[in-house]
Amino acid sequence: MTQISVIIPTYNRGQFAVEAINSILAQTYTDYEIIVVDDGSTDDTKEKMKAFGNQIRYIYQANKGPSAARNTGIQQANGTYLAFCDSDDRFLPTKLEKQMHFIKKNPNCCFLYTWYYNVNEKGVITKLRKPFTCNTKEQLQYFLFARRFTIRTSTVLVHKKCFDQVGSFNENYWYSQDWDMWLRLAASYQGYCLEEPLSEYWLHGENRSSLRVKIHHPEIIENTLKRYGWTGEQIATLEKLYGKNRNE
């Protein structure tokens, strides 16, 4: 069985997708497959993907949104572990190798994320992002809920069995679906942080604007409070326990 399935959802980002794939093909770890899910692109994405031949599995579907594209990748994955690389992000060469090494040293780890770089449109690193290392599942739950840090989708490595437990990405969410998923994973699994930047998050006009979209946040917050069974008093207690510091 393949160890890792790398899932790349894409929509009208042909050249970005090429660069994302190239960053995966440059990995020092080699036991992986690449699944590109084209969510109804109308640009030249399909033609650009042909150049990779059997190095990738290319799946085209009608436009249903990023959650649906990721879910298609999950359903088609053969890997024990799943990694996600948004088509406008990139993996650094040792990402998968170092994550698998971490998991071998921490066999209870099913949900692993890393630090990452912000990169601007010119390809210049503008910031090192350092998500927290949380010592308990409760701490991770609270820090995610309070938005003390962001887990970037292109940093994670998740055991496929986790999605059997928590379900798929919510296909009604075209924004913030990753935040919703990490909150759901944190309900069942302790998240681990590999304290090294292993991915690049490329900021450009389209995803900069999407950062401001909070349309689904009230629903995600309500669902999370129900899932965790938290009251206002419990949240206040967690605030006192974990403080207001950020380390990003």
TrEMBL record:
Full protein name: Glycosyltransferase involved in cell wall biosynthesis
- Please give one Pfam family short name: Glycos_transf_2
- Name all Glycosyltransferase 2-like domain ranges: 5-142
Question: PANTHER family from the entry?
Answer: GLYCOSYLTRANSFERASE, UDP-GLCNAC:BETAGAL BETA-1,3-N-ACETYLGLUCOSAMINYLTRANSFERASE-LIKE PROTEIN 1
Q: What's the source species for this entry?
A: Sporolactobacillus spathodeae
Q: Which domain of life is it from?
A: Bacteria
Under InterPro entries, the record lists: Glyco_trans_2-like, Nucleotide-diphossugar_trans
Query: What SUPFAM superfamilies does this protein map onto?
Result: Nucleotide-diphospho-sugar transferases
